[in-house]
Amino acid sequence: MRSSTAPDPRIANHPILRFERGTPVEFYFEGRKLVGLSGETVAAALIANSVKVFRHTEKLHRPRGFFCAVGKCSSCLMVVDGRPNTMVCMEPLRPGMKVERQEGTGRLP
Amino acid sequence: MKQVELAVVGAGPAGLSAAVTAARLGCEVALIDDNDRLGGQLIKQTHKFFGEKSHYCGTRGMDIAGILLEQLKETNVRVMSGTSVVGLFAGNVLGLADATSFQKLAAKSLIIATGAAENNLAFPGNDLPGVYGAGAVQTLANVFGIRPGNDALMVGSGNIGIIVSYQLLQAGVRVKAVVEALPRVGGYHVHAAKLVRLGVPILTSHTVLEALGDEYVTGARIAKVDASFKPIKGTTRTLAVDTICLAVGLTPLSELLWQAGCRMVYVPELGGHVAWHDENMRTSVPGVYIAVDVSGVEEASTAMLEGRLAGAHAAMALRGADAGTTIEQARTELCAIRSGPFSRKILCGKARLAECALPLN
Lengths: 109, 361
Description:
Chain A is mainly beta. Chain A has one helix at 42-48, and strands spanning 24-29, 32-37, 55-56, 63-64, 77-80, 83-87, 98-100, 102-103. Chain B folds into two domains: 2-117 and 250-355, 3-Layer(bba) Sandwich (FAD/NAD(P)-binding domain), CATH 3.50.50.60; 120-246, FAD/NAD(P)-binding domain.
């Protein structure tokens, strides 16, 4: 989580880009309410909330996060609304979504 | 089962050009992409392109995506976004999955333009959150307007590494250094010079040894390397960074080509395994075409041209369309655009591919 002194990951001023920000979308990460924006992926919303660890691996319990952003590397697999192995870099954020860190390979609901 | 004359997989610069070209020549086209938003990696490219006016010189990549999407709107291409091609079955049948359903689509011809994914690099801690592909960081910063971190190390000084470093600065991220294992900068001088003017050190003959941190990156150890890329003792230092970006090349996303039974050839200069193809972008499997990056990792300008070539040839083969001029022109422009010193590697790779002239199957 972001400490109160750390800068907001959302870019406020950019020399050439104007971001068309979506409307606020409430979702849950590990049971805690967070706010992302419509039009974002789950991964983007998590990073905007300074969440970096998306899962832990099966054998060595290594933390894993975002890596490729194109739905190919499988680093960002999370449990979304009970569904394991969801690639959150491709998953659009929806209101009320329950996003949880995946521990190991994930279990089917 | 649903049928279509031509299915184009991937709506980046290559796939968009292929679909528009084929549709303009009278083909019935379905364009499939797993993203909701079309344009592939162009939509995050804020830098201006080089080359000639006909290749969108001076235009930012994201604006080129806009131009291609406008062209697409004027055609009757059936767009299937948010749809993954999860398999390719016998007889050019595609398995398609979207958020809620699975369906099959039979195509008379296919153009595979699935692009490439970023390579990782072997070093301790390379799996820690905070070690990101440079292109992934570019998506975060330029599409979503989110900083991946506050202090970054860039690994690799090819065009992606130096362009993304500059874009990180624009996003308000401090770029502590760019490390490059080779003794010289890989990308265009003009991009590197912009970074250097802003005080970012580009450390040639340097590499990353280790990512530090328990739950996520808190630092990076770097060192100078000798001529055989071995770290030199006594040159190690630690940078306080929370982000390590890897810009160390890309690998073609060739799964569908393997499934199609295309003859695959390993050509390091083209990025790994690519499908054998002729000068019209035909693979060894009848009716299956490809375009950059699955024909060889390149950039958007050549992707658009190879896409146009594939689209035109497919339209000619399927419909007897009068595509001779389009094909000739695309080939001529490809030669022109690849005439510079930065294209030597790709031409060498294409020549190596041409040496295995006859498909074996």
